[in-house]
Amino acid sequence: MSAIFPPTSARPAPASDAIEFKRVKAIFVGSVGNLVEWYDFYCYAAFSLYFSAAFFPSGDPVAQSMSTAAIFALGFFVRPIGGLLFGYIGDRHGRRLALMASVLLMCGGSLLIACSPTYASAGVWAPAILLIARLLQGLSLGGEYGSSATYLSEMATSRHRGFYSSFQYVTLIGGQLTALVVLLVLQNYVLDTAELKAWGWRIPFFIGALLAVVALIMRSDLPETQAFTAQRKQGRDRMGGFRLLLQHPRECLIVIGLTMGGTLAFYVYTTYMQKFLKLSVGLTDAQTTAVSAASLVFAALLQPVYGALSDRIGRKPLLLGFAVLGTLFTVPLLTALRHAQGPYEAFGLIACAWLIVSGYTSINAVVKAELFPASIRATGVGVPYAIAVSVFGGSAEYIALWFKQQGMESGFYWYASAVIACSLLVYLLMRDTRRHSRIDAET
Q1: Residues of 72-100 as b/e, b for ≥16 C-beta within 10 angstroms?
Q2: Major facilitator superfamily (MFS) profile domain spans which residues (predicted)?
Q3: Cα 89 to Cα 94: distance, rounded to the nearest angstrom
Q4: 377-411 burial, b if ≥16 CB within 10 A, otherwise e?
Q5: What share of the chain is helix, strand, coil (3-state, %, to 5)?
Q6: How far is residue 357's CA from residue 363's CA, in Å, rounded to a whole number?
Q7: pLDDT at 9
């Protein structure tokens, strides 16, 4: 039987060292599983420059990138379904089961990509199989976010919830960083460009499937959260489901509004940035990978710092800081980056961008979890978030490439600024969830 932790706040005395160690271990395991899921998902973006021609033959590299970006976006559009499905599992049957099921599905999607035939051998079936695999991964990731955000937020103590919850984005970024490290190793030490395009792009997906099995084993031993256990004692028939979610329309709209600007900014400086550095800035493949990897390391280091800061000053000041600076400086930063002279200048500009974007990424998970009661928390976090990410995050790369193809690349910069400005209005009107946390109210 899984261990159950005592309430995460309102205790008369600090938790014992043994309980605190188990708590940190559970948060670590949950975070590692999150890293594996995002590694699997981001391998597609990291290696798309090499496998796009295998599925979409064309002499135009921008057109090939747009085709792979379109499938990348479609993988996002099923995320709300994944959020609803795995949110229901998490709210009705436990956070641990939802986390295990999501990583298992991700394993299947990665394995399918690794074994997919190319256009030369299967014709139109090749991109169709690729699409099916991405849809499976999209379903998995749609459930992963809500489940892991809920789990980490409920496991953390009230005083350090922002700090511990920030590790969701540490591992999320770490997943993409791991994908880039694998790419860097294959590029420089194992395979040449021709081999990577011919068959080497399959290697990271095989690695991802194997890592997902390891994460599944680790998650099988996770303890359940006190918040879920206490709510289940009141009756499972009052937990989870779309009908219960509809009873919280204000919270759902807040999640969509606070997510739209942040998720667009996040995908601009992660998945799209690799193509931007190569196609627009003009860096080499190796320089593009090195700059992307270095900027992600910098971003990962910022997350717990900002998360800990939110435990002291609140969540709202960080969100406002991101939105104000993002609205004002997205166009200047991307314009300067477009004309960057070499990899070092490019890294410096991206690092400046991460100083802004981390105000959102570090705490967005905990803010959403603190909005909902335990009975609908995994679904409430996952579904509206997935809707916003599908519309604004998953489409970011495709829209950016479309603007570039039309000869209006700077138009995308203004589009990103406008979306961030819309989130600013939400931040101004919402309450600070650190001071009005539903998690603390329940415990």
Answers
A1: bbbbbbbbbbbbbbbbbbbbbbbbbbbbb
A2: 26-434
A3: 7
A4: bbbbbbbbbbbbbbbbbbbbbbbbbbbbeeeebee
A5: 80, 0, 20
A6: 11
A7: 46
**C-alpha to C-alpha distance for 262 and 396, rounded to whole angstroms:** 12
Name the token pair of 292. 């992307």
Residue at token pair 């995308």: 412
Work out the end-to-end distance of the chain between its first and last CA atoms, rounded to an integer number of angstroms.
23
Q: Which long-range contacts (CB under 8 A, 24 or more apart) does 334-337 make?
A: 334/268, 334/410, 334/412, 334/413, 334/416, 335/410, 335/413, 337/276, 337/281
As to burial, measured by CB atoms within 10 angstroms (0-12 exposed, 13-18 middle, 19+ buried), residue 209 is: buried
Across the strands, what pairs with 8? none
* Lookup: tokens for 260: 């739209």
- Determine the Cα–Cα distance for residues 69 and 87; give it in Å rounded to an integer: 27
Q: What percent of the chain has pLDDT over 90?
A: 44
58: left (phi over 0), alpha (psi -120 to 50) or beta: beta
Residue type, 149: A
CATH 1.20.1250.20 fits 21-224+248-442, yes or no: yes
CA–CA gap between residue 378 and residue 218 (Å, rounded): 20
Q: Computed from CA positions of residues 299, 300, 304, 310, in that sequence, does the dihedral angle turn out positive or negative?
A: positive
Question: Could you tell me the two tokens for 181?
Answer: 């490290």
Q: Which of 176, 150, 109 is nearest to 255 (CA)?
A: 150
Quick one: DSSP state of residue 1?
-
- The answer to whether the CB of 56 falls within 8 A of the CB of 68 is yes
pLDDT score, position 125: 87
pLDDT tens-digit map of 163-200: 999 988 898 888 888 888 898 889 888 888 889 888 99
Domain range annotation of the chain: 21-224+248-442
Contact criterion met (CB below 8 Å) for 175 and 39? yes
Does 441 or 347 have the greater pLDDT score? Answer: 347
Token couple for 268: 């601009």
Q: Taking the C-alpha atoms of 100, 103, 109 and 115 in order, what is their torsion angle to the nearest 10 degrees?
A: -100
pLDDT of residue 426: 96
**10 pLDDT above the threshold of 50:** no
